[in-house]
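User: My collaborator sent over this chain with a note saying "see what the structure looks like." That's all I know about it. Can you take a look?
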Amino acid sequence: MKQIIFLFSLCFAVGVNAQQNSIEQVLTQIETNNIDLKANAQLIHSQKLEARTDNNLPDPTVSYAHLWGKENSDETVSELVISQSFDFPTLYASRNKLNKLKMSSFDSQASIARRDILLQAKEVCLDIIMLRQEKEILDERLNNAEQLAEMYATRLETGDANILETNKINLELLNVKTEARLNETNLQNKLKELLALNGNEPITFEGTTYPNHLFPEDFEQLRSEVVASDQQLQTIFKEAAAAHQQTVVNKSQWLPKLELGYRRNTESGDPFNGFVVGFSIPLFENRNKVKMAKAQSLNLNFQKENTTLQVESELSQVYNEAKSLRTSMEEYEKTFQAQSDLKLLKMALTGGQISMIEYFVEVSVVYQSKLNYLQLQNQYQKAMANIYKNRL
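Assistant: Without extra context I'll predict from the sequence alone. Here is the result:
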């Protein structure tokens, strides 16, 4: 008996791991093929290139002047100036640090987009599993209703059943067929949604059981993990660091801009060559830029606090929801264990031990309870997926 129990547990664990790997394989394909993620990757790439251009040198300037006298146009003077302007050297180092912070922030934004797409895809997979489990119950119920309809049609011909009982069974058969059609329609729609998430590239998902998610009993430990790994929070922190560095850059822009160049002049008849040195004082161009950067930095600091509170609040809500769902699932499981088998009810009906009304009341409650249990399982799995979404 111990060996049988061990083999059963091993098979269950292998089945769960295979199912989990199946979902992970689907998510891997979607990460590669999803069109939104491809478009977002190009957007992030363009933003990085734009950030790099902020630290480029200005274009060099070339000017040439050719002058002639008013009385004698043969007397000419020419001047050639080639110059390159640049900011104070320390400003380039500050901008380079700012660009690195911006790059990190852009990468975090890409991680959020990836996480949200994969979470959506995982929820679709969980819905597909639920619909397939519902299909098994509906197929069983449909098969049972068809057998009863056939049996009572025969009884009606022989006079062992009345038309009211026969009509009730036919109505039950019609209702089950309708639910089965709706189930199949919803299942096909979810498969199409999964296909769209995969960029309309063929994708196969045959899962029928959920991954095994152990409920985290220690909320404080979970809260610490989620706050430390939440990608939205990490993005806000990096944006705040970039905003602070922007303030440093804007302060440095009050340093003078420099200019170096070459000059050739022929005013005296003989050409003169030399170099040009100049600088400009930024009296007007940078006005209020430091104040603007400080305000932006302060804004992001408030956003950090607000986002942290939101993440903790949402986690608390989802955690309580998952805890409540788990309790309801356990109650259903205990009830199912103590419940009589549906086959016994059918035997009691055909043997005349219970009436048609008693049978349908009992059967309807059992089947509805099973469907409710599947809904609870689905909601619990989605809640757990949301809790651990930053692990995707």
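A starting point for your reply to your collaborator: The mean pLDDT is 85.
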